[in-house]
Write a structure and sequence with these properties.
It is a single chain. The chain is of the alpha/beta class. The chain has six helices and five strands, in the order βαβααβαβααβ. Strands 2-3-1-4-5 form a five-stranded parallel sheet, with helices on both faces. α2 crosses α3. It is globular. The model has no long low-confidence stretch (mean pLDDT 94).
């Protein structure tokens, strides 16, 4: 059954890896804000990054609806960091009568720290296209993140 999967989780919590596995099992389409932002702007979006990201998310919601209309599932991989973003996503798909599943990836902090180090090393080696995570970015993203409560989550992945 076609469905919109919404991946929620902190920075480097395994969302993209999980999304790639999920689309194979669901024969779905992965929509990733980071993937498109990096392809278009590299790491050089600067002060416009947040505005461009918001525009891209709005565009990808519409693309997700088109994909669902064609009978395929879709995986939205962009964190859903705030309660408001999670509720807006659910309402968008509910208004179009598409089921959603909010998946919260919540690995232990030590694991996330190892993944951040591995990601940064892969970026430095040129084997991965991703945003490097420094202390400033980690602090900014952590300050934005609102932990979901049980009523918001359909599947909790530890």
């Amino acid at each position: 059954m076609r469905k919109a999967y919404l991946l929620c989780g902190r920075l480097c919590s395994g969302k993209t890896t999980y999304a790639r596995d999920l689309i194979r099992g669901e024969h779905g389409v992965l929509l990733s804000v980071d993937e498109i932002m990096l392809a278009l702007y590299g790491t050089d979006a600067g002060e416009a990054h947040d505005v461009l990201t918001a525009r891209l998310q709005a565009y990808l919601f519409e693309k997700a609806a088109e994909i669902l209309d064609c009978g395929n599932s879709v995986v939205l991989d962009w964190g859903f960091w705030t309660r408001r973003s999670r509720e807006e996503a659910r309402q968008f798909f509910k208004a179009r009568r598409y089921p959603t599943e909010m998946i919260y990836l919540d690995p232990p902090e030590e694991m996330r720290e190892r993944w951040i180090a591995a990601r940064n090393a892969a970026i430095a080696a040129g084997t991965e296209a991703a945003y490097p995570v420094d202390e400033g970015l980690a602090d900014k993203m952590e300050a934005l993140f609102e932990e979901p409560d049980a009523s918001e989550v359909d599947r909790w992945v530890h």
